[in-house]
Amino acid sequence: MASDHTKEDFRKMADTAEPVRINKYLAQAGICSRREADRLIAEGKVLVDGAAALTGQMVLPSQDIRVAGERAVRRQERILLVVNKPRGVVCTTEKKWGDITLEELVNYPRRVFYAGRLDKDSEGLILMTNDGELQNRIMRAANYHEKEYLVKIDHLVDASFLRRMGQGVYLRELGVTTRPCRVEKTGRRTFRIVLTQGLNRQIRRMCSALGCHAEEIKRVRIMNIHLGNLPSGQYREATDEELREICALAEAGNLPEQICQ
Questions:
Q1: From 76, 84, 108, 216, which residue has the greatest number of CB atoms within 10 Å?
Q2: Average pLDDT in the chain
Q3: What is the reported pTM?
C-alpha cells in the first residue's frame, strides 16, 4: 500500500506519546540502528530515567533516555541524502592513511549515516539518513529491495555469462549461492545487474567465480531512488515524493516472486 506521508507528517509522528521499544526509539532518534542499540543496552550504556535500560523495554518520549551520558531525543525531521560516491572514498569510520571517508566527503551539518555500502573501488549511489529505523529497513536483505548496477568486466559478455549470473552463482568463500537476479547486456564487456542482496563485494565475487574480473562497478539505483545526472562527489536531498515512496517500500518489502519478473 502506498504511503502519502509528507515531512510535516513525520514531524507529527515524532511527537506521538505511544510507547515504543527502546531500540526502536534510539533508531528513530537517529542514534544508531536497532541492532547497535541492543548492543549498547547489553553493555549498560543506555539509561532510562537514571536506571540501566533493559532489552525490549518500552519507553515514552517524555522519559529521560541517555546513551553514554547524552540525551537521546527524537529528531524533528527525517533526512535522506542521495550521494554519488567517487572511487577511492571509503564507507567506514576506520580510515587508513590517506583515505577519505564518505562522511568527510559529504560534510553534512547534521549527523547522518549510510544505508548500505560500496567498496572503495566502486562508485555511484549511496543513501545517507538520520533515521536508524529507515536505514535498517533499507539494508535488511529479507526485504528483497532492488539495487541496480552498471558493470564492466575484462571478458566479453555472452549469453552463457548472462544466464549463469542471472540464475545465481555459488560463492565458495562465503558458502552461499546468490539469489536469482536480472542481468542485461549493455555492451561488448558491460552489463546491467539488479540485485536484491547486499553480500560483501557481491558483484566482484560473482564475476570472479565465473572467471572474470570486474573492472568498473557503478550503482545507479536503490529501490525508487535513481542516481541520475548527480555529479560525482556531490549530494542532494531526496524529494518529498522520493521520501514517501521509499518509506512505503522499506516498510512493505518486495515479494521474492517479483524479483525476476
A1: 84
A2: 85
A3: 0.71
